[in-house]
Structure formats: structure tokens, C-alpha cells
Amino acid sequence: MTILCVRFQLPPASETVAVEAALPALLGLLEEFTPVVEALPPDGALADLRGAERYFGRSAVELASVIRVRALALHGVDCVIGAGPGPLSARMALRAARPGVTCAVPADEVREFLAGQPVAALPGVGTATARTLGEYGLDTLGRVAAAPLSTLQRLIGVKAGRELHEKANGVDRGRVVPNAVSRSLATERPFERDELDPDRHRRALLSAAEELGARLRALEKVCGTLTLTVRYADCSSTTRTRTLKEPTAHSAALTRTAYGLYEALGLQRARVRAIALRAEALGPAEQASYQLTFDPVEEKVRRVEEVADRVRAKFGPGAVKPGTLAA
Question: What is the pTM of this model?
């Protein structure tokens, strides 16, 4: 077991600035053990401890305990940690972990561990794919692993079928890719109680997208990709990322993309605890180009944005009601 998947239990996301300040600091804590750290915004990370195990003379599970103690002592943040021989097994182990106890999956037990997991729990498997497989009785990774490769490829495609078959059999070709979390902005909308109503989900997305747009414009930045994370009542989550047609900071474009990501999940009566949006691949606004349009509605929306930004700058973020900028 050389890979850790860590989810930090950050403060309430209503304190957006505090959350964004906390994650880079916690990633810095991980980097004290290994330089190979991949941020998983808004509150997680992967860490490759192969070199650290040799250097410190401790196993990854022992190092996980030290990381947990330091996160609590230095930042007041507890964490949930999964450990495995690869990124996939570490992520899956995280689902079974709990605060104070690291869930570790040895290399020779990965396939057995995965066998009882639902197909939808595998990173990269969407709702539509899981539904298709379930219609043929392939609702667990163990059944997927035992199914003929040709059957999976007929059901979900050649490439996707091969990748799913390998992952279900414990073959992990992924690796931890060091990255930086500073080139992103995030916001989250938690619900007071687990929310079933899709209309409330969409209103939360609208509010989050408009906030991101306003903050991007205030920083004179544009974003190239948007990531949606939906957290459920059972503490599991689904994350999807989409590259924008062109870098933007306009709330209407961000809202349309956020709605598209949400609709693609195909949620049905899902008990949602929180919805988070992250704008990534940030760049200077003055270097960005966008498609010229003669649509009077689009131009009107942009002018309304400018007015709303001036109102926020003068009277505060709450001065503009969510939905004002909706096209």
C-alpha cells in the first residue's frame, strides 16, 4: 500500500475564503512527506508515499496516522484516509474509511475488496453506465469482473468496456499527478437537510455559478473548466468536470455548464447534502478571446453583469439576489 487518498473535513463551505485557504495549507502538510501530491478539490488529495516509506522507515498506514494527527494539531481539521497499492484502490478504500481509522487494501486483496462494491462506486462510472449494466445483472464489480470482455464492450463500447473490465479485476493503470490547487476557485452550497428536490438543486447551482462568475471578474480572471461535486446523504460523492467552449468569467455561461453537468448525472430522488462548483484552469482575462456575437440578449446580460458587479463592490456580495443575471 503506497497511495493515500485523503479527504479533509473542512469547515462549513459558507466560509468560502476559509475553505480555499485551508486546502493549500493541508496539501503543504502532505508535501512534507512526499512531493507527489495531487489535489482533488474541493477537499481531497492523493499522495504517493513510495519514497516516504523508505525514507521514514514506516508504512503508508503508519504515515497516515501521523498525517491525521498533524492535520488536527496544526489546522484543527480531521480527515478520512483510504490506502491502497494504486490511486483506484485508494479512492475505493476511502469510501469504507472513517475518521480515526485508515481503511487499507493490500495489493493481494484488491480484487476481493472490489468484488462486493456497486458498479456506480467506481470513479469514472456514470449513472447511465451503471443503469445499463444493472439491467443485465452486472450491478457489482465482482460480476463485472467475471463477465466476458466482449459482453461489456457490446454494452458500453470497446474502450470503456476494456477499461471497466480491467478496473473491476483490480488492474490500476492510474498514477498520482502532482498539480496545484491555487489555479482554481471554489464555492459550495450545503443544504440544511438532505435535499431531494431537483429545483432546489438547480437554484443552488445558479447561486454558486453566479458567485464564481463575480469572483472571477473581480480578480480579472477567466476559467477554462468547471467541476461539479455532488455530496450525498451517505457521505459519498460524485464529481464531473467539463471543459468550456471558451475561457469565460460570465455567470450565464458558467450556469449553463453547471446545469449541463448536473443533468448528465441523471439523479433520481437523490438525497443531496451539498453541491460544490470549482472553476479551474484560470488565466488572465485580458489574454482571453471569445466568439463575437450579435445576440442582443447576450449583450444585455453582459451589461447587467457589469452593473451587478459595481453594486456588489459598493454594497457587498449579498446586494445582488441570485438569479438576477440568469439569461
Answer: 0.60
H-helix segments, the chain? 16-31, 50-56, 60-75, 87-96, 110-115, 127-134, 141-146, 149-156, 158-168, 198-218, 251-265, 296-315
Bridge partners of 229? 239, 276
Give the β-pairing of 103-104 and 79-84. parallel
CA distance linking residue 194 with residue 203, whole number of Å: 15
- Give the CA distances from residue 246 to residues 184, 252, 254, 292, 293, in Å, rounded to whole numbers and listed in that order: 16, 13, 11, 12, 13
pLDDT at 311: 63
Cis ω before 42 (30° cut-off from 0): yes
Strand order in the sheet with 103-104: 37-40, 44-48, 3-8, 79-84, 103-104
DSSP conformation class of 107: G
What is the mean pLDDT for each group of 10 consecutive residues in the chain (327 residues)? 88 51 79 90 87 91 94 90 95 90 92 92 84 92 94 92 93 84 76 94 94 86 92 88 90 93 90 92 72 56 66 57 55
The answer to whether 183 and 281 have CB atoms below 8 angstroms apart is yes
**What residues have CB less than 8 Å from 88, skipping those under 6 apart?**
122, 123, 167, 172, 174
* Angle (CA) 116 95 60, round 5°: 105
| Rg of the chain taking only CA atoms, in angstroms | 21
Instruction: Note the Cα 88 to chain centre separation in Å.
Output: 15
- Nearest one of 152, 178, 156 to 165, comparing CA atoms: 152
For 279-303, letters b (16+ CB in 10 Å) and e give bbebeeeeeeeeeeeeeeeeeebee
